[in-house]
Every structure is written in C-alpha cells, then in structure tokens.
Amino acid sequence: MPPESSVREMRRGTKSCLECRKRKIKCIWRTDSHIVCRNCEQRGRACQPQTALHKDHATLRLSSRDRIAQLEDSTSRLWAAVRNIQANTNLPMDEAPNRFDLSTPEAADADSDASESVPISPPPHLKQLFENDTLGSNEYPSPGTSRASSGSAEHRIGQVRRALQQLLPTREDVRLISSYASGWLSLYNDLFPTSHVLKTGSQLLDQQELVRHPKASPFVISAYLLSLAITLQQMPTHALHGMSGNIQDGVTFIRDVTNTVAATIFHNDALAASIEGIDVSLLYLRLHLGGNKMRINKLWLGIRRVIALAELIGMPRASYAASTFCNQAELNTSSEISQSGRKNKAMELWYSICTIERMACLMYNLPIGTSSYDLPKQPITFRGGKMPFKAYVMRMADAISGIQSLDNMRDDPALESAALEKTLKIDSELRTLANAAPKEWWTMKDGEPSADQILQYMTKYFTVRTHLWLAMRADARERYPYSYSVCAEACQELSIRYVKLRTSLPNGFFMSRVLDLQVLTGMVFILSQTVSRSSMSPVDQDLRDTDSIAEQVLDTMDSVSQESNGDFAKQGAVALRSLRTLLSSPGSSSDGLQSLTLSIPLLGKIHVRRKTLAPISYNSRPVASEDNQHPIEDGMQWDQALNSLNYNLSSDDTAWLMQFSTNIPFLGDDYSLMDQWNDLEEPNLLISKLPNRQE
Predict the structure, then answer these.
(1) Rounded CA gap, 405 and 353, in Å?
(2) Are the CB atoms for 624 and 391 separated by under 8 Å?
(3) Which residues, at least 6 apart from 530, have a Cβ–Cβ distance to it below 8 Å?
(4) What Cα–Cα distance (Å) separates residue 66 from each residue in 61, 73, 147, 156, 630?
(5) For a tag on the chain, would you pick the N or C end, based on fewer CB atoms within 10 A?
(6) What percent of the chain shows pLDDT beyond 90?
(7) What does the radius of gyration of the chain's CA atoms come to, in whole angstroms?
(8) Cβ contacts of residue 362 below 8 Å, gap of 6+?
C-alpha cells in the first residue's frame, strides 16, 4: 500500500481502502508501489486509504445524554430567571412545561443505578490487614468509574433540583407563611438542633434567592419546602385564603411537597445515604407527625430506614471517632479540619437518631433497634437558667430503654422480683437526672412553650411508666407504697403540666399527639385509683383535687381536638369521660353501669367492664414506714434496697378489667387486624348494661 502523503496517518493494521471497505469486498493490490487497488482501477474510482483523525475537544461529539442535560440545564436557568422576575413583580407564577415525572421508568432506572453507588462503610477487619505496623494503604477510586458516576450523578441531581424548585411558592406567599414560622422553628431547634433546619421565620425570606439558584443543593431546597409545609400545618384556615400562586390550599401544597421529597430524597438511596439526606429524612418524618392523619406503620418503617442508612454509611463508628478528632491538639491541613467537622455533624445526628428512636419505641411498644449503641453520658451543667437539652435527653433515653423490658416481664410471674429490681434501678437513674437541675427550674411558668417545659413533662411521664405496673396492682398501697406514691404524684403533676403546655404549643405541632397520649395514661391511673375506691388509705392522700384536675384536662382536650392533629385528644376525652362514668356508678346496684366499649389511641376498640371489689383492710398488713417512702439512698446496693422495702410480690386483680383481642395481626390471615396501625377513625362508644354478678 502506498504511503500516505497527507498529514493524516494511516490506521494501524488496515489493508483495505475506503471503497473496498464500504463495499465489503477484498482489497487486492498489484504491487506495493501501486497507488490504486485492482477494484478501484477496474471501476475508475479514486482509491483512498483508511486514515485516523486526531480529534481535539472542538471535534468531540457529545452523547445524547450530555446534550439533553445541557438543554435541561439551560431551560432550568431560563425558568429560574422568569420566576425571579415574576416573584419580584408579584406576577402569577407560571408552571414550567414538561415537568419532570418522578414515576417515569427513566427516573426509576436512575434511582436503581444510584443504589449501586451508595457508600458502604468498609469493614474494619479487612482494612486492618493492610493498615498495620508492616503495611500501609490508601484508597484510589477508579478514574473511569469516577468520571462516569460523577456525570450520571450530576444529571440525576439536576432532575431532583428541577422537580423541587417547581414547588417553590412566590415571595408574597413565603412572607405570609414566615409570619407563623418563628414559634415552632425556635422550639424545634431547641429540641433537635440540625444543620438544615432554619432558625427563624425571617430566614425563609432570606433564602428565597438561594433555593432558586440553578446550582442550589437539593437538600437545602427540600428542607426549605418541608419547613414551609410544616408551618402550613400550623396556620389557621382563614390565613390560607390569602395565598396565591401555586399554593391554592395548604393540603394540596403539603401533599405535593410530601410526594416530591419522598420520591427525590427519602426513597433515593444515593441521596438519602448521606449526612444531609438523613437530616432531611428526619424532617420529612416529622412532617407526618403533624398531619391530620398519622400512619404509625409508615412512620416506624421510615425511622428504621433512616437507622439502616446511617449504619450503612458508618455513622455510628464515625460518631465514636469524632471525639478523637476533637481531642487532637492541632489539625494541620484543611482536609483534616473538614473531616473533623463532618464527623462532628455525623456524631450529633446519630445521637439525635438514637434518642428519637428510643422514645418512639417506648411510646409505640416496639423493639429498640439502637439498644446495642451506648450514648455518651455528658455532664449536665445547668447554666443561664436553662438545661442542656442534648445531654439531658441522651441520659434520659439511656435510662428509659429499660422500661420496655418491664412491660415484657409482667407476663411472667417468675420475673416479678427482677422487675421490681429493674423498676428501682430506673427510678434511681431518673431521680438522679432530675436532681441535676435546681428546684426553681421545676417551677411551672406561664408564657411561650420552651424545650425545658417539654423536658419536665417527659420526665414526669417516664416516671409514671416506670412505676405504673406495680402501682396498678390492687395491693399496691400496702405492698408497693413507694411505687404507688411516686406514680400518683407524677400522674397529678403530669396532668397539671399538660394543661399549661398543650394549650401553648403551636397548632399542629409534631409532638402534640405524643402529649395527648401521655396524659391519657396518667388520667386513667388517677380515675381508677380514686373514683373506684370508697375508702382512702394514708397513701391515697397523694391523689387530691382529682375532680378539678380531670375537668381541666378534659377541657384542654376538647379545646385542642379541633386542631389538625387533635384526633388523639378527641378520642382521649371521650374515653376518660366514659371511664369516669363507669367507675363512679354503683358497682353493687343492678341499675349501675357495668361495661362499655370505647376506642383508645394506638390500642383500638376495647371492652371495659366493672369488677366487684373485695373489701380492703389497710390494717391487715403493716404499711411501710415513712422512711421507706424514698428507700434508695446513694451507695445502697440493690439487694439492700429490696430488703429495706420488704416487698411481698402478689398478683391480685385490679378493680377493673380491659378486654381486647390478643391476636397478633402479623400472624393472622385476616388483614382487618391491621386496622390498629392504619388511620385512626372517629371514636366509637357503645355503653351497655350487663346483669350484676359476682366476679
């Protein structure tokens, strides 16, 4: 083949000319000196050899995905500019055409591909093989894989950003929403300080330009939209009439934000498996707590998903390693400083996850998934009249994790002694925690709700839960005077604090249902121990003014039952009034009310019947002395504390009985058994009279 005279070099290994290659025939040359092959010579065509072109960046052809990404990026910038002009001039917002559909197969494929790139925490035992006294190693990502994954990740992030930005309201709507945001934002940041939650309502206005930027972070946009949606849940109905733009009504906007954030962030493995993604996921779950309908199963599965992703990316180990970075005397490079700050964020977020999960487990009687992780016991330093919330909550979450084991022990009579020992141990930890604050801190104050008031309320509730099993026994006044007295006092104070705290919380606050359910526990104990007893022992003097307290609690429940998340309060008020009627009716009269059926939050429909009480003599057994009312002293061993109490364990029946289905819904074939975990219906109360009989 003749040499190439042009600047282009011949392709290596080629013998055919362009014409023969095109016709797919064998290219035959007479001699090496000929410049035309035999086929081209016979057909009178120019014989051109195959050559290789040296392509530069100007001649490179972009792929279809890259060209589409450039067009979408240009379109998003144009729409962002249009929205800024419309927002500044108060013009109605136009919806961008070709809105990104999150349910398309392309979006599902993108999320499936992204799931493969979720960062997994490397196993320490494998890293130790190459990082020891003999060997040292560094991780080098594959260059080709990094470039490919980076390009596809940018494309997916661009899609997520555009889907979220299409939900942003106008500046006028944000100004109206921000006027209702400061109350819950300040309280929320005191309870759960995170990096992506705004601090004040004015920041909603200040971040308008930031979230509309073409390169804005999807996590920042998601947190911004979730903050707006949570605020809308707490706004009165008349305030929503002044909305314009794409917020036609609060329900529609909240539903759009919920669905979009769920599809783009919460259920996106690649984005959710990060510190920022987990932070936004927690805020997404709290949006469900404040809605008018709460699905416990979805909320619980969401918490478990967040924990699984945090474990997958190694957040627990990073939280333990953060203390090492913090204790270093000097950080030499900027990368070390950045790594230390990121590990500190991971540590704070992981402790917040553990605290939320443990409290939710205790509330819904579900197993604790983070029990194997120990929370650090930070010193509680009371400064400036405020309790360090984070240190207090972590200590309390660590102490109350044993309450769930008490619920499991009560079904086995052989474990009563161990349950009593566990009760005293938890009580000691809670009292030590409560004594860390001065007495004036526990004084109930009027005014705006604060994190301190919620801390005080939660401490009283967990004290009730700790002693409830022993205090509900029929012989608790004699056999368990300490548990009975502590539980009665805590129930009264819990009810009084509920009246002051519940009415001061913002409408639709995410913890409202929790408070309603907790006060129901205390009030049922008070009613069952006072109304059903004809005589009062000396210990019963702790239950005083119960009628006035009950009326205040019921009035509070009635007033908040009209809120968006007031369904628990509505059901609780009906249940308490019905139970009080049942217990106050003459138990021995044939005309007295003997049973009723009512609906309890998280418990479902139960059948409650009045039991005939046997006369109780308080002098038949020696009552514990006044010195034993607070039997546990500092340094006392548990066996010594048990001996000083002189408890005789028994299993006498209580004064009234609740009967409800014991079928486990997960093991049955009837799907209707799962109703207790679905949307809570309106209270269904059925009162019936049964013939009087001896139990």
Answers:
(1) 21
(2) no
(3) 540, 543, 546
(4) 10, 10, 13, 12, 73
(5) C
(6) 13
(7) 34
(8) 400, 401, 403, 404, 462, 465
Alpha-carbon distance 4 to 184, whole Å? 78
Consecutive H or E run containing 687? strand 686-688
**What is the full DSSP assignment across 579-611?**
HHHHHHS-SS-TTS--EEEEEETTTEEEEEEE-
Count other C-beta atoms under 10 Å from residue 373's C-beta: 16
Centre a 10 Å sphere on the Cβ of residue 405 and count the other Cβ atoms it contains. Answer: 15
Strands of 604-610's sheet in order across? 656-659, 604-610, 595-600, 686-688
Q: How many C-beta atoms surround the C-beta of residue 359 within 10 A?
A: 19
Domain ranges of the chain: 9-52, 73-118+154-294, 315-373, 389-688
Report residue 474 as tokens. Answer: 């029929």
Residue that the structure tokens 């609780």 belong to: 572
Which tens digits make up the pLDDT trace of 386-397? 777 778 888 888
**Angle, vertex CA 416, rays to CA 412 and CA 422, nearest 5:** 115
- Alpha carbon distance 631, 622 (integer Å): 16
Helix 451-471 with 334-364: angle, nearest 10 deg: 40
Which amino acid, 500?
K
CB 502 within 8 A of CB 560: yes
How many CA atoms lie within 13 Å of 496's alpha carbon, on the beta-carbon side? 18
Span 590-641, pLDDT tens digits: 555 678 888 888 788 888 887 765 554 444 443 333 334 444 444 444 444 4
Note the pTM of the prediction, 2 decimals.
Answer: 0.68
Distance CA 232, CA 244 (A): 14
What is the three-class DSSP state of 323? helix
Identity of the residue numbered 161: R
